[in-house]
Amino acid sequence: MKFFLILIFTIFFVGNVKSNNVTVGISGYQPRVAPSFYYDVLEFYLSWDNSWNNIVYRDGAQTTLKDGAFVFFKYRLPNGTVHPIYPTLHSPVEGTDLAVTNLMNLNGMLITRNSLGNGTISGNFSISFLALPEDVEILAFAVEIVQVPSLLPFYYRLGDGYDGSSESTNAFHHVDNFFSTGSFLQTDVNSFDDGEIEPPNTIRVTDGITEAAIDNPNFPPLYKSFICMKYEISQGIYRDFLNTLTLAQQTSRTANSPTSAIGTGALTVSGANRNFIEIKSPSSNGSPAIYGCDASGNNEYDQANDGESIACNFLSWMDVAAWLDWAGLAPMTEIQYEVASTRITGHYTFDYAWGQSIHNNPLTITNPGMASEVISNASITLGNANYLGSATNGPLRNGIFSTPTSNNRKKSGATFFGIMDMSGNLNEACVTVGNVAGRSFNKELNLAQSNGNGVLAANGNALVSYWPGNVALATTETVANAEVTTAAGTIVRGGSFLDIADKLRKADRSQGQVPATRTATQGGRGVLNLP
């Protein structure tokens, strides 16, 4: 007989009253039902607050903006190993005002609001999948997402300068006479920004004088819509990720041995720079450890004030890639980062993700570690972000500036599309177009295959084809069926709590490769590339 773990999982919160609280849980199960006795059927419910599906008009064009959730399931066998579930068919129960996008060959499903409107929304769903073994636990996960629409011409949404004289460091910029030459963007000369982009999807290398084509038609299209995580990976979901791994996998994805004593930090010294993931129960006799969050420091884990909603720092590129592969998501390219962080009408000089102003004052944290963690002295007129001037010494709760009174992008620190913390808090880990290892991302695969498949290597590394880090050098093309063991082909974007304001600008490309070691300022988030 099968049994189930109903996992109520919230990846983030967005204010003590105006919270998003994405929740998913299992409500029913039917083994091997007609018409096919080779499939199991699972029923689950999903809800989140402050959803939206709105039509906006800019420059005479109509665009639909919406959020949603990416939901995925796994099952745990009696021997403790955890495996992904690949839905073969999924649909909302009749009367549910939520739409399911049929994503073939993915281990999750994309669920969005069906009708126009805003506010709390919920629904019940049914999925079928190949029959599972007996006596398993089923685990349900959800991350809230935002749809970034396709807006042409895409090149007006990259960079923040025109001629190289008034722009962020190493920013993409428009070349002279671009209408006559056909070259729309190029960059200054260094190892991370030597890419030139031409429509519809050609990437070239240039030193400003000569150029050579590096055409990878399978690189995620520069003009195509995609799905972006609304928030950075939280400490709560990284904890839950660790708790689905084997001992060998946990050893790779943590800094301290899983056999260490209770209270030992998972990714760093417990509590350092506001990272609160600890060993709750040490590994014993070959079994994996159990991890928990303990921001309160009382050795009672996963309580309301234990920091589950704080963005997870001390993530190396290999940690980020493994989490993305496990969740079935893909790395975000630096092109996607800029498109998602740019005003719908185009780029402006020295923009942050929300606009041009920034609040420069030490922040006061109220209710630290709680889902209601909030900044009591946030600005009501300038852009809010967690950066060097904030004096927080660590990441804040995901989406902390979004409150019942933060009714614009500056107050909430949000992008035009509603994505949070793209400037500040933690650095964004992206795929670069500035070297061969980055530009060959997704080489020889179709777009949907750039997403993870839910399965890690036995040692805990991401095991995916043509992802950054599966080769040793930035000058080498990515390859098939290889583990992610380096950071070749990546770039840091967006700035962190220890960066000056200039590093937070959406066009700044000065920080180089994502660290292959665990650093206090590094986090991550993923995207879902659609066919």
What's a quick, concise take on this entry?
Helices cover 8% and strands 26% of the residues.
Describe this structure in words.
The chain has 531 residues and is mainly β. The chain has helices at 178-181, 235-242, 247-252, 317-327, 334-340, 409-412, 436-439, and strands spanning 23-30, 39-58, 61-76, 82-84, 89-92, 98-101, 108-113, 117-130, 137-148, 195-198, 202-206, 211-214, 226-229, 277-281, 290-293, 330-333, 365-366, 374-375, 428-431, 463-464, 482-483, 490-493, 526-528. A hairpin with a 2-residue loop joins β2 (39-58) and β3. The two termini are 38 Å apart.
Describe the SSE topology:
Layout: E1 23-30, E2 39-58, E3 61-76, E4 82-84, E5 89-92, E6 98-101, E7 108-113, E8 117-130, E9 137-148, H1 178-181, E10 195-198, E11 202-206, E12 211-214, E13 226-229, H2 235-242, H3 247-252, E14 277-281, E15 290-293, H4 317-327, E16 330-333, H5 334-340, E17 365-366, E18 374-375, H6 409-412, E19 428-431, H7 436-439, E20 463-464, E21 482-483, E22 490-493, E23 526-528
Parallel strand pairs: 16-19
Antiparallel strand pairs: 1-2, 2-3, 2-8, 3-4, 3-7, 3-9, 5-8, 6-7, 9-13, 10-11, 11-12, 13-23, 14-15, 16-23, 17-18, 19-22, 20-21
